[in-house]
Amino acid sequence: MSRERTRTALVTGANRGIGLETVRRLERAGLDVVLAARDRARGLDAARTLGAANIRVEELDVADAGSVAACAQRLADDGIGVDVLVNNAGIYPTDPFFSLDEETLRRTLDVNLMGAFRTCRAFCPGMAERGYGRVVHVSSGLGAVSDGNIPSPAAYGISKAALNALTLVVSAAVPPSVKVNAVCPGWVRTDMGGAGAPTSVEQGADTVAWLALLPDSGPTGGFFRDRTRIAW
Ligand SMILES: NC(=O)c1ccc[n+]([C@@H]2O[C@H](COP(=O)([O-])OP(=O)(O)OC[C@H]3O[C@@H](n4cnc5c(N)ncnc54)[C@H](OP(=O)(O)O)[C@@H]3O)[C@@H](O)[C@H]2O)c1
């Protein structure tokens, strides 16, 4: 009797913060999880804190196209298809517009936007072929344009607005069996959010994991906070 294959999720920037908590939730939900971190040693340390057997650690620097390709190749060589992709890796430079140098903007886009572009290009074709996929872009309300402004440091806001645009582009490019959504986790107590942030890491990862585990009837091409659709 054939047994249905366990779904595999890959979470980028997963050695700490919202990414690590998302790994924990997806593993508890019964998925095999690839904990991807740009520094393998830090990834292994993080995986050890979870103490779970079905977590595989992969080195993945989303800012490096070669690193994304090499990670995808290692997984393919081991017969692992990524069914759920959580693009969580991010950086938060705080320079206001007139202090922002080109290199900082380029680096921010390379991680926050191009990282998701690279992983979507690497893993979404396999999802489309297998007829199942979930993609979650960990974005931010600080990149929302619907209020007529970007209320955040310049490079970060630009990169998250662009990540929201990428969400819509990818969701339109894949079949309906692959659901592609963006999430604002709130202002979360992580290294990025700081100790004064009002939202716990557990709460911050809740909507991320919810979107990663959407049923076939779930939405695609949306932007969510607290499991509720919000304006782009
Ligand atoms: N915290 C908040 O209040 C908040 C609010 C809205 C949205 N977000 C978004 O939520 C996501 C996670 O943030 P967080 O609060 O958990 O931040 P965090 O604790 O600073 O974690 C960021 C993670 O991204 C990784 N990363 C950075 N550059 C990378 C690269 N080139 N390749 C792979 N991984 C890379 C970091 O790895 P290293 O350890 O190697 O640096 C780290 O694991 C980000 O996309 C962030 O923009 C956060």
Quick summary of this structure?
The protein contains 7 helices and 8 strands. With 232 residues, it is α/β, with parallel strands linked by helices.
Topology:
Elements: E1 8-11, H1 17-28, E2 32-37, H2 40-50, E3 55-59, H3 65-77, E4 84-87, H4 102-112, H5 114-130, E5 133-138, H6 154-173, E6 178-183, H7 201-212, E7 223-225, E8 228-229
Parallel strand pairs: 1-2, 1-4, 2-3, 4-5, 5-6, 6-7
Antiparallel strand pairs: 7-8
Helix pairs in contact: 1-7, 3-5, 4-6
Bound molecules: NADP nicotinamide-adenine-dinucleotide phosphate (NAP).
Overall mean confidence score, pLDDT: 96
Task: Identify the quaternary structure here.
Answer: single chain
Number of helices: 7
What low-confidence regions span 5 or more consecutive residues with pLDDT below 50? none
Specify Rg, calculated over alpha carbons. 17 Å
